[in-house]
Amino acid sequence: MHGFDRYLEGRGYKSFAFNSETGRLEETGSNSISSLGPIGLLYIHSSNEAMKLVDKGESIKGLDIKDCFILGLNEGGGSPTLISPRPKIKVKKTCGLVWWLEFEWRDISMALAFENESLEDIYNAAINQDVTFIYNVEVNDVNEANK
Asked: What pTM does this model have?
């Protein structure tokens, strides 16, 4: 996951897996995401109001937890990544003399951000939504461009 999980932990976030049976968040270590479960982790800052419920072991069902990050498995066959919130990403795809610009929300676009941006820039762009990362991608076939 390109170290983003450890970056969040360094900023005071704790990782939790949601137990759907009890409605409680269970603290977990990073790097525990797998297709065998849990498939996603919720990262909540230690100053978040929801932490009061978590610390008491109370259910968070129905609670709108703000200012948190979700990391996990999102698209089939992909590795764990940042699911939400994501920075704005535009990809300029070129096939020969033809090009087009697309807003991208797929995991492959998030991978481009992790390859080209600092973790701090990704964090700030995900929170503020005032920065758009733009990448150029060459494709061999117009039909390949939507994969």
From this structure: 0.81
